[in-house]
Structure formats: C-alpha cells, structure tokens
C-alpha cells in the first residue's frame, strides 16, 4: 500500500510540475487552467440552456427558499455533529468510523468501506451529484440576473473530480443577500432532491421486487473450521442439516444441538456435503491464561472428549478451573470465566482485592458461575449500583473471593464491577464446532425497507442508510458492510414482485439508486458544514450579515467577519481532527 501511494504521489507531483511549466510558457489553450494538480476546463457553452431553464423565476425562487430553510436546519445540525464528533475523538480516538485518513475519501478501493465492485455506481453517483449541485448554482445565478463567466469540468491531474459554475465575481458581490443566499443553497437543495427521488424509487418498487433466498446465508467460513474443510464458504446457502430444514441461523443452531459429530449439510445448489464437527479456537487473546492460539483444536476437557460448543459449555458449567487437551496431545490448565485485560484502578474490584491494573478472570458472580464474558454481562445488567455481591476471580493465577460493592455503569445505569477490556468468550478464547460467518441478507433487505422492514421515522431511515456501508463498525454484532447487491451476496437474493421480469437487472437498478442517493445525501450534508469554501460557509456569511445588520452597532462588517471566521476555523479544525485525529491519537 505504501509503495502504491508513493507512486501515485510521485505521479501527481510530476504532473503538477509539467502542467504548471506548460501553462507558464503559454502552451496550454485559454480554456485549460492549472493550479497545482488541479486542472479546470472552461467553456461558455450551455449558457443558453440555463437561460431557458431559468424562465419560471418565481418557481425557482420558491424552490430555493424551501431548500434554504432545509439547508439552515442541516447547517446547525452539522455544526453540532462535527463539534460533538471532534470532542468525542479527543476523548476516545477509537470511537469513530473513520480510523484512517483515506476513509474520508469517496474512492472505491482506497476507502476500506467502498469496494471496487461498486466503483461504477459510486462514480455515477458523484457525477449526478456534482452536475445537479453546480447546475443549481448556475440556474439560480441566471434567475437572480447574475452573469456566468464560465462553466466546466474540474480534474485532479487527468481524473475528473467534478463540475463547476463560475459566476461573475463583481455581479455576485454586488447582488443582494437574498439572491446570494438562494444561489448558494441551490446546489445542496438539488442534492437532497435527488436523494429523495432515488430512495423513494429504491424503497418502493425496486426493493419490493427483491426477496431473500430461504436458508442460512454464508458470508464466509472461518479458517481451519469444519465448514471450511467441507467446502462451505462465501456465497453458500445452507438449506438443511442432518435431515432438518433450516431457514435461518436460529434453525441452524437448533439443528446442530441435536446432531451427531458427523453432519450431512444440504446446500441451495442441490449438493450435500459432510461436516466432521470439531471444537476449533476461532479467536484468542495473545499470551492469555489458556496459552491457546487461533486455530487450535480442543479434543477434551477435564479428560472427557469434547467436540461441540454445547459440550464445551456443559463441561465448564460447574468448574472454575479446567484442563484442556488439544489435538496435538498437549494440555493446559487455566481458570475459565470472563477475562478482562485489567482491574480498573480505584474501581470496586480493586478496592475489594487490593489489586489494580492486572488482568483478571472472573469465574463466579453473586454465587453464580460465569463461564464466559456474556454470562457476566448478563448478570451485571440485572444489578443496581451500591449492591454488595461476592465475586470469585483469578489474578495472576491465584484465586481470590471478595465481597464487592458495585459502582455505577453510567451508560446503562446498572452495577459496575470495575474491570476494563472485557474479551468475548471464555478466558479470552472463542470456539466454534461448525465455523461459518452468517451474512445478514434478510437484515440488510429489511433496512432498505424490504421484507421484514419495521419502518420508523424519516430521521431513523436516514441514519440507517448513511451507516449501511459501515455496518460492521456502526452496528454491534454485524460482521459485514453493505455495498449493494454485488459479488457473492447476489446469490442470497432473488428477483420477484412487479419488477421480477428484469431478473438480475433489478439488482443493478437497486445498486444505482442506493449509491446515487447515498452519495448525494453525503454531498448535501458535507456542503452544509459552515466553513469556507463550502456552501455552508457562504450561507453563514450572508446569514450573519442579515442578523448583524439589525444590531445597533457601528462596526457591522468587522463583527460579521469575526463571527464567520471563528465559526469557519472551528469547523475546519474539527474536520481535520475527525479525519486525522484517530490515526494520530491512537498511535
């Protein structure tokens, strides 16, 4: 990745030097202008079309006024959200979706959440968004009798990055605040309009024509697990286990509880494969108490052969310490419970045990066995701050039993035992006797308003749509991001309903509508951030002028400049913190 980035940066630098030299020597035509790596191609063609479109001036002014009201609301929301996000990142750098600077770029293959498979749809969304955005500015310029110097295409080196409309600077500067403000809001208004149209079509006939193939949808098989060894992997759909039909993950779990070690598994393609179940460690903390690593196969617990998760759980039910034997014949003895990376200094457990900062394994809580982290979390959720409970824990391999007065979990209001860095599983290891990672096909379709969709407010729908491409980090328990109906996940869906006659074309249409709507929604939100040179910064200036002009003071221009500069710089600093803060502060 570093080598590729170096070549790209070298190419950009070379282009900038050569293009600047050619421009300085007059070798470039007048319609091509260079500023570093940015090249703009100017034309005056299309002005007649804008003049014709601008004829119903009252309509366009009314349209822009409605859009301006929406823009102002979004601007205020953007200001609050950006400040809140920046402060949160300062306190917890890992709390943001954008963990690397390149994740802020809408470039498939560079942004980790945007795969190359949807590059055509994303490029189309950007093209539509930029054309309607700049077209809105140009149209309102003509509605408000502001001349257009030129319009055209902007490129980074030779790669198109957007369109632009260049108003006559003097006429724009001399225009009244109202026309100026409507002109700046027009682009965002058009972006939001395209978003509404795209998502209305997506939520309506298109998603209504997509169904989920019955069965358990496999996003992938965990390495070294029985499912992977049996050839079950990405794109597989499990329809039967041990003679029982399965339509979802819950059916699969129930079928496996009653199944033997050797399990026949039916797939949607009509084939049947045999899975030889074994207990594989699918994740493990480094240098944990068990000493086991990912990929180890557990064959016995306390001398009793074990090859299933249910057998693993049953073997640990009444034992705080267990001896695990692996496939290679080695054994390890360790406390088995909820593992945390450290006892919180000055926390309830530290105060009771006299410890602090050490790793700990909690094996019993209030007299009940806690074989894993989930059990401890469930028990804590039923407690209240101030309760005193007996806790059995292992610190440094030594057992200690203490009465602990619980603190308060400020997020849930329940009791707090005082440990940090809780790891999933038992003593930091997670095991699986089958080994698939299910893809939430039905959940993603429901989020798009399809079968099983629960509805909800418009705001909820917007939040869901914005976060779908980041679902694996935005939604607890989800292992996959939703990039559209692409790749292996297409096999999990079927074309049905009113547009079923399109076959696979309905998925192409759904992808286009999703990404066009998503890109335009993000373009609209981003341009509403009140900082220059974004539209939000210009609207902030004209709005501030309108308010200051009514104040009984003499230095109105200075106050306007001070307010807009302060807000703009604050927003710019917060945006930079959002983009670069996680990687810098986490390091």
UniProtKB/TrEMBL annotation:
The chain crosses the membrane at residues 62-90, 184-203, 458-479, 499-521, 559-580. Its main location: membrane. It is a multi-pass membrane protein. The keyword Transmembrane helix applies. One of its GO terms (biological process) is membrane protein intracellular domain proteolysis. One of its GO terms (molecular function) is metalloendopeptidase activity. PANTHER family: MEMBRANE-BOUND TRANSCRIPTION FACTOR SITE-2 PROTEASE, PROTEASE M50 MEMBRANE-BOUND TRANSCRIPTION FACTOR SITE 2 PROTEASE. Residues 123-553 form the Peptidase M50 domain. One of its GO terms (cellular component) is membrane. It is found in: Endomembrane system. Keywords: Hydrolase, Membrane, Protease, Transmembrane, Transmembrane helix. It comes from the Archaea. This is Site-2 protease family protein. InterPro entries: MBTPS2, PDZ_sf, Peptidase_M50.
């Amino acid at each position: 990745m570093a080598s590729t980035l170096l070549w790209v940066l070298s190419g950009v630098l070379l282009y900038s030097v050569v293009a600047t030299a050619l421009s300085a020597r007059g070798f470039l035509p007048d319609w091509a202008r260079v500023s570093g790596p940015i090249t703009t191609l100017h034309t005056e063609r299309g002005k007649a079309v804008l003049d014709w479109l601008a004829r119903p001036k009252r309509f366009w002014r009314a349209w822009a006024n409605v859009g301006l009201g929406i823009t102002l609301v979004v601007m205020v929301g953007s200001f609050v959200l950006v400040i809140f996000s920046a402060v949160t990142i300062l306190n917890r750098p890992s709390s943001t979706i954008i963990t690397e600077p390149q994740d802020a770029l809408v470039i498939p293959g560079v942004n980790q959440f945007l795969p190359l498979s949807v590059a055509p749809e994303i490029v189309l969304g950007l093209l539509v968004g930029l054309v309607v955005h700049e077209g809105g500015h140009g149209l309102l310029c003509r509605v408000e009798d502001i001349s257009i110097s030129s319009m055209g295409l902007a490129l980074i080196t030779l790669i198109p990055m957007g369109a632009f409309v260049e108003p006559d600077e003097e006429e724009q500067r001399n225009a009244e605040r109202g026309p100026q403000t409507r002109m700046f809001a027009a682009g965002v208004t058009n972006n939001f309009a395209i978003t509404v149209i795209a998502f209305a079509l997506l939520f309506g006939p298109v998603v209504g024509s997509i169904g989920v193939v019955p069965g358990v949808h496999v996003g992938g098989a965990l390495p070294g697990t029985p499912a992977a060894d049996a050839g079950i992997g990405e794109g597989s759909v499990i329809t039967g286990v041990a003679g029982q039909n399965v339509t979802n993950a819950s059916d699969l779990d129930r079928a496996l509880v009653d199944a033997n070690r050797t399990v026949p598994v039916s797939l949607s393609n009509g084939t049947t494969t045999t899975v030889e179940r074994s207990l594989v460690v699918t994740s493990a903390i480094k240098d944990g108490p068990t000493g086991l690593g990912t990929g180890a196969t557990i064959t016995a617990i306390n001398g009793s052969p074990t090859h299933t998760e249910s057998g693993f759980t049953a073997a640990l039910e009444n034992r705080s310490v267990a001896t695990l034997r692996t496939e290679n014949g080695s054994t390890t003895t360790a406390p088995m419970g909820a593992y945390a990376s450290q006892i919180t200094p000055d926390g309830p457990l530290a105060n009771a045990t006299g410890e602090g900062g050490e790793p700990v394994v909690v094996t019993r809580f209030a007299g009940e066995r806690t074989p894993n982290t989930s059990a401890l979390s469930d028990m804590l959720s039923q407690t209240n701050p101030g309760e005193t409970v007996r806790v059995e824990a292992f610190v440094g391999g030594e057992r200690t039993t203490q009465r602990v007065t619980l603190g308060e979990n400020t997020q849930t209001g329940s009791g707090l035992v005082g440990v940090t860095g809780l790891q999933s599983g038992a003593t930091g290891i997670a095991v699986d006797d089958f080994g698939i990672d299910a893809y939430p096909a039905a959940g993603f379709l429901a989020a798009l308003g399809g079968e099983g969709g629960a509805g909800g407010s418009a705001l909820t729908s917007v939040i869901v749509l914005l976060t779908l491409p980041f679902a694996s980090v935005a939604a607890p328990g989800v292992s996959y991001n939703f990039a559209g109906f692409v790749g292996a996940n297409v096999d999990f869906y079927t074309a049905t309903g009113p547009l079923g006659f399109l076959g696979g074309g309905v998925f192409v249409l759904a992808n286009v509508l999703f990404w066009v709507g998503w890109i335009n929604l993000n373009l609209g939100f981003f341009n509403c951030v009140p900082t220059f040179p974004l539209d939000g910064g210009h609207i902030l200036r004209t709005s501030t002028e309108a308010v200051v002009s009514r104040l009984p003071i003499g230095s109105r221009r200075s106050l306007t400049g001070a307010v807009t500069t302060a807000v703009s710089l604050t927003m710019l600093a917060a945006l930079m913190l959002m983009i670069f803060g996680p990687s810098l502060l986490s390091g």
